[in-house]
Structure formats: structure tokens, C-alpha cells
Write a structure and sequence with these properties.
- This protein has no helices and 28 strands.
- The relative contact order is 0.17.
- It is mainly beta and 316 residues long.
- The protein has one domain: Neuraminidase.
- The strands form 7 sheets. Strands 11, 12, 13, 14 and 15 form a 5-stranded antiparallel β-sheet that branches.
- The protein is 0% helix and 58% strand.
């Protein structure tokens, strides 16, 4: 523990998690900090941020480290989560989280209110993507509900964060057990994993097999490259579609992938859950090895006498 007199660098493990975590790069901080959301092992959701700054000002998370966890989402038990920052609000955080009862909840963060549960996005859901904001401001998400793959579109107006959804079919075949999407030029790329473990990428009306024997797969795109995080139930790999290379990331039961754009380059930011612990792996786009891989734990500058950096629900 580093001691600066009036402040200490407090290091502690994050609470245990389950299900699928999520990450995205927001626009807070000079370089754009990372956001994380995860399903707490007991109840609710956990949210935190990763400091991407170049210099440490000895407040909040240390440079290159995660903050403590803030619990939100009530006393429901969640099994998957996603997070996105959108321009609407402006710059609100959109979280979709699936309960163990199949209710896909939408929770929106605003500076004035913190996270507010906006109610059910859809029911009888078994898989879903994050909310994505298209260049025209439309919000879109892919989900599997009632055994069918669907696309939900909404254009936020003056009533935002309230949304009215337009739900239509997602043309990705049948028997889909996992689904994800990214914007690619003027169309959407859809990634679908079927019940037989076949992962297909649907790009501008054409589909191709990415992998076989997979339980779940997540999709990311940046700087003209596409990466797929493949999970077979026990281990994880990142597949770079341009170079057709696959990087072994070790043991994991669930995970997420998102790009980050930093002054020294673009990276794939990968969160992998193994048991109750989440590991953060960073890969430079185009590289064939991980730059770093560390457990998600809080390393936070706090006032003398502070016992924990984690915050209970009432603190927001």
C-alpha cells in the first residue's frame, strides 16, 4: 500500500461475479476511460471504470488500474450484461442486463440520477447484444426472444431515456443460442452462434462460418479490422478475421470484447470471467500476443482511514 500522507493507494479484490461481463470505452477522461459492468454473484450489477490517463493525479483509480465497484440494479440476479455510452442525454450509459428469469432489463446512467431501471426491454430472452448507436443516432440491439432472433430499433427523441422499440426479424438462420452485432459501413454485421456450436458472421447479406464447437461468441470492429471472441465453455480465443489468426487467452466461461482508441494505439479490450474472477486482457490490434492480462481488482487513491473502495447502492 502506497502512502502519500493524506491519501493511500488501496488495493482490493472485486466482489465475486457470475455470467457475462461487459466493457466499452467512454469519453470521460482525456484519453477515454473504460467502463465495466458485471453481474454480482449474489445480486444486482457491479460497475466501475479503468483509468487510461498518462499521468497519475492520485485521485480515483490509479493509472492503468480499475476503480472500486458500485452496486446497482436492485436485488435481481443477472446472468449477462452489456454497456454502451451513447451521445444522447448527452453521454448517458446504456446497460442491458438479463435476469435469471429471462427478463432483459434496460438501465440508464445519467450524471444527475445515477443508474435508473427503465424497465423490461424484452421478455423471454436467452441472448442479446449491447445497445449500439448508429451514425444517425438510431439505437439498435440484437436479441433472441421466444426462440427467434430479432432486431430492436429505436430513435431517441425529446422523451429520452424513454424509448419506443420497433422489433423486427434478424436474418441469421434458426436455432440461435448467442447473438451480437456491430456497425460496418452502411450495414450491420451480425454474429450468430447456433445450438450446434457453429458461429456464423452475417455481413451485408453474405454469411461465413467463423468457428465450430463454440458455446458463445462476441464481436468487435475497429480500424477496418474485425475480431471475434470465441468461448467454448472452458477457454477463450480471439480470432482476427483479416489475418485469420487465433490467440489463445486461457480458461474462461464467459467474456466480452471491445476496441479502445488511445494515443499510443488501438487495442482489443477483453474481459474474461473464470469462476468468480474477471481477468482484463489487452491486445494491440494486429498483434499476435496479449500486451497484458491481469485480474480486475480495485487500485484506488483514498483518504486515510478508508476501508474499502467499493460502494453500496445508496451511495449514488
Amino acid at each position: 500500500m502506497t502512502d502519500l500522507g493524506d491519501r493511500l493507494l488501496l488495493t482490493e479484490a472485486w466482489p465475486d461475479t457470475l455470467g457475462r461481463p461487459a466493457t466499452t470505452q467512454g469519453n470521460y477522461g482525456r484519453n477515454g476511460n473504460l467502463e465495466i459492468v458485471a453481474c454480482a454473484a449474489d445480486y444486482g450489477l457491479l460497475v466501475g471504470w479503468f483509468n487510461t490517463e498518462d499521468e497519475d493525479d492520485h485521485s480515483g483509480a490509479a493509472v492503468g488500474r480499475w476503480s472500486g465497484a458500485l452496486r446497482f440494479g436492485g436485488e435481481l440476479r443477472y446472468v449477462t450484461s452489456t454497456i454502451t455510452q451513447v451521445s444522447h442525454g448527452p453521454d448517458y450509459l446504456e446497460v442491458l442486463a438479463l435476469t435469471d428469469g429471462g427478463s432483459l432489463r434496460r438501465l440508464v446512467w445519467a450524471p444527475e440520477t445515477g443508474f435508473v431501471d427503465q424497465g423490461a426491454f424484452a421478455e423471454d430472452v436467452t441472448a442479446h447484444s449491447a445497445v449500439h448507436e448508429l451514425v444517425d443516432g438510431t439505437l439498435v440491439a440484437a436479441l433472441v426472444t421466444g426462440g427467434r432472433a430479432r432486431l430492436a430499433h429505436a430513435y431517441p427523441g425529446s422523451g429520452y431515456p424513454r424509448l419506443t422499440l420497433d422489433m423486427g426479424p434478424a436474418q441469421v438462420g434458426d436455432a440461435v443460442q448467442d447473438i451480437d452485432l456491430v456497425e460496418h459501413g452502411r450495414h450491420l454485421d451480425l454474429l450468430a452462434t447456433d445450438v450446434d456450436g457453429c458461429v456464423r458472421l452475417w455481413c451485408d447479406g453474405v454469411n461465413s462460418v467463423v468457428a465450430e464447437g463454440i458455446h458463445a461468441a462476441r464481436l468487435a470492429r475497429s480500424t477496418g479490422r474485425t475480431a471475434v471472441l470465441l468461448l467454448d465453455g472452458t477457454s477463450a480465443h480471439v480470432h482476427d478475421l483479416r489475418s485469420n489468426t487465433r490467440l489463445d487467452l486461457g480458461a474462461a466461461q464467459a467474456g466480452a470484447i471491445a476496441p479502445s482508441h488511445l494515443p499510443d494505439g488501438t487495442r482489443w479490450e477483453v474481459l474474461l470471467r473464470d469462476g468468480g474472477t474477471i481477468r482484463h486482457t489487452r491486445i494491440r490490434v494486429g498483434a499476435n500476443a496479449a500486451e497484458s492480462s491481469l485480474p480486475v481488482r480495485a487500485e484506488v487513491w483514498v483518504a486515510q482511514g478508508t476501508r474499502t473502495s467499493h460502494r453500496p447502492p445508496e451511495s449514488f
